[in-house]
Amino acid sequence: MEWEKCKYCGEGELVLGENINSGRCIECTFKGYRNWLLIPLISLLILTGALSYVLWGYPLQRDVWGVLDRAQITAESDDMLRFVKDARISLGEKNGLFSGKSQAKGNCALIFKEPSNSLDAQYLAIRNIEKRLERTNEFDKNSVEYQSAIDDIRGTIRELPYLDCWIWHFN
Questions:
Q1: Rounded Cα–Cα distance for residues 103 and 90 (Å)
Q2: Is the pLDDT of residue 168 over 60?
Q3: At 123, phi and psi to the nearest 5?
Q4: How far apart are the first and last CA of the chain?
Q5: Closest CA to 71 of 138, 156, 164
Q6: pLDDT tens digits for 4-56?
Q7: The whole model's pTM is what?
Q8: Is it the case that residue 58 has pLDDT exceeding 60?
Q9: What ranges do the domains of the chain cover?
């Protein structure tokens, strides 16, 4: 038998005639397989992220934040109230993907719990918007008070932070 140096690294030795590695030594052969193992792993991570978004993130966007966006551009307070109620009910029914906890309670932080990441405060803000719309429905629709109230509520909805803790959700 003859021994030859590896064509790729120039260090390892291989046997001529019994070579199934196309001129590679054993180290170069396994180095190539190691790189190929990363592709299924990365593909699995991408697929898991996409699937979790489709199963949880998209319905939250569709049932809560999309409804609030629609409420913001409606012309009448009756329609706006209906959209805000639908968003509040949907937000209360949604649970975190891994925690299983309601999106109407808790925080989106483990250590730095603040009002800016409080789901309780966000849910309360949506409840307050709903109450303001109920009072606004009692105004005359042609009055300045009605138009001013509707414009103020639109601004409040527009500035509402859309928090969703579908992965990191803590009580």
A1: 9
A2: no
A3: -65, -40
A4: 70
A5: 156
A6: 667 667 666 654 545 455 666 666 666 666 667 778 888 888 988 787 777 66
A7: 0.63
A8: yes
A9: 3-159
Q: Amino acid letter at 118?
A: S
Rounded Cα gap, residues 88 and 86, in angstroms? 6
Map the chain to HEC letters: CCEEECCCCCCCEEECCCCCCCCCCHHHHHHHHHHHHHHHHHHHHHHHHHHHHHHHHHHHHHHHHHHHHHHHCCCCHHHHHHHHHHHHHHHHHCECCCCCCECCCCECCCCCCCHHHEHHHHHHHHHHHHHHHHHHCCCCCCCHHHHHHHHHHHHHHHHCCCCCCCCCCEC
Summarize the confidence of residues 96-124 as an average pLDDT. 75
Contacts of 26 (CB under 8 A, 6+ apart): 12
Whole-number Å distance between alpha carbons of 8 and 32? 11
What is residue 12's predicted lDDT score, i.e. its pLDDT? 62
The single-letter code of the amino acid at 147 is Q
Q: Name 170's bridge partners.
A: 107
Residue 35: what pLDDT? 65
How far apart are alpha carbons 40 and 60 in whole angstroms? 29
What does the alpha-carbon distance between residue 55 and residue 168 come to, in Å, rounded to a whole number?
Answer: 16
Residues 162 and 171: their CA atoms lie apart, in Å, by 18
